[in-house]
Amino acid sequence: MASAEARPVLELSGIGKEFGAIRALHDVDMHVLPGEVVGLMGDNGAGKSTLVKIIAGNFRPSHGEIRFAGSAVHFNRPIDARAVGIEVVYQDLALADNLTAAANVFLGRELKRKFGPLALLDHKAMAARALELFGELRSETRPDDLVKQMSGGQRQAVAIARTRLSNARLVMMDEPTAAISVRQVEQVLGLIHRLKEQGVAVMLISHRMPDVFAVCDRVIVMRRGEKRADKPIHETSPEEVTALITGAKEAA
Amino acid sequence: MAMPMESPISFTNIGKIRWWQRGIFASQTGYVLLALAVLLVIMHFASPYFFTEGNMQNVAKNFSFIAIATLGVTFVIITGGIDLSVGSMMCFSAMITSMVMTELSTPGGLGASLFVHMAADGKTVLANVPGLILLVSILAGLGVALIGGLVNGFCIAVLGLSPFVTTLGMLSIVRGLGYVVSNGRGSFPGGPDADYFYALTSGDVLGVPAPFIYLVILALAMAVVLHHSAFGRHVFALGGNEKAAELTGIPVVRVKIEVYVICALAAGLQGIIISGWLGSAPANMATSYELNVIAAAVIGGANLAGGIGGPLGAIVGCVLLEVIRNGLVLAQVSSYWQQTLVGVIIILAVLVDRIRSRMI
């Protein structure tokens, strides 16, 4: 593991993005190591979402290069990013309420069994694998329950379990703790620890300072489309990060 | 990357959903089925004729005449769409089928020399290969339905038009085309294969009406597709959360086009069957049937907001409508009451579902 950890799983160099006359991102350099939890912070309009969307393959960068696990990558669609091992947990979780937890975990990647010329869904295998994933995430979630009957924490677990199907190497989580209860926040932070334990790199996009300081190894602060700070969490403080976000302090 | 689990998950504070709170028991389809059972019992006591073999055959035949199209429109409704063009599509498919059949069976007609020849007496027309004309003409009828479905799907999935407006336009386009090709007169199945046609559409096997047999086969196929294939899962996902479906890599455009094609084909097949029973395909055939079809789907539990529905519900809805119609006739109530009652039932079914989902 030690040799692998030395090499970043994701490296961005000189990433810039313009939408017409609007410069959303300018010359962003950053890297994420395997098993590292990086907090990405910034005010609305700071460029966090644009950055995430570039890494996830929703947009192409206007400038700069993305390297994933050492080699340069170009994503045209989100599926391309997923193919190399980048998974995103969207803010609204992208779950279909009318389907079961297992069905959501396997949505778009269903397991099938051949019956002659027909490929039918393998419900048993999907439920078993989903239960296994929920177990890894220590979430009390039944694979056969409908998502609409679930709590916010369970829904998070379903969305995160989805990223575990493909052995993702980088999971980006967009505001995973924004709309859930205190107990459920604990669960989600626990889920992030589980991912870290398994050597997965996590990028946590969040407004909630306590959550970032609870789980992250490093924090990156964006302001007006530029990276203003990139510090190990123990070398900074919530006060300093707040100052960087608001612009009271220019850079650190 | 699967790690050995330290301990199996314990469900300390998450109760198991009870059997009566899940699946069919918790669905609108479930209690509409119950209501139907109650209605059947009432009908049995209200009229001695209701449970006679003849009447049962009649009921089975009549609801089969809209149920196949209801299966098709249920696919569309599950994705959160709507198809208003089913009635017109029934008529147009039936019309094309009988026109092609007549044309191919008329010596001197377009392409007829390939299919028929004159008998020695100079009057009787004989088929070169029995059944071939029937096959070609049914394929032609389904072919125009396929094109209609593709156009619907293309406008909705690729161009992003609203399903309601697109299919409302298609309702008018297809009905208009029906009047154009037949000059407003409609058409009649004819030629040496017409007997096969009537046998396949309005005949019966051991007392079971043929349309009912097709319905059962198609409904079973639909159940398998919806619940045991990736396509079916994607249909439900599309109705549940279209954005999620897109983000998880489901080919949303393709699935949407496919459901509108399935719906149009089901309507086309339904129209062809109805024309066999009528003995003709008049230009005003199946006018406003789209409303009956959608009403049956909704009564059976398909949710117009998307994400919920199935073949059992579609059939239960059709049966309920037909039993009520049949019951009013047997009870010698004016048949004009039927429409009013159907409307009341639509609202009641949706209302009961609303109350139930608030209670849980």
Automatic annotation (TrEMBL), chain A:
Gene Ontology molecular-function annotations: ATP binding; ATP hydrolysis activity
Q: Which Gene3D superfamilies match?
A: P-loop containing nucleotide triphosphate hydrolases
Give the superkingdom in one word. Bacteria
**Carries keyword Chloroplast?**
no
Task: Relate the protein's function as given in its record.
Answer: Involved in beta-(1-->2)glucan export. Transmembrane domains (TMD) form a pore in the inner membrane and the ATP-binding domain (NBD) is responsible for energy generation.
| Entry keyword set | ATP-binding, Nucleotide-binding
Its protein name is: Sugar ABC transporter ATP-binding protein
Q: Which organism is it from?
A: Bradyrhizobium betae
Pinpoint the ABC transporter domain residues: 10-249
**Which Pfam families would you find in this protein's record?**
ABC_tran
**Is the keyword Nucleotide-binding in the record?**
yes
From TrEMBL, chain B:
One Pfam family assigned to this protein is BPD_transp_2
- Bilayer-crossing residues are 31-51, 63-82, 94-120, 132-161, 212-231, 259-279, 291-324, 336-355
Task: Give the record's keywords alphabetically.
Answer: Cell inner membrane, Cell membrane, Membrane, Transmembrane, Transmembrane helix, Transport
- A GO molecular-function term, please? transmembrane transporter activity
Query: What membrane topology does the UniProt entry give?
Result: Multi-pass membrane protein
What domain of life?
Bacteria
Q: Supply the name of the protein.
A: Sugar ABC transporter permease
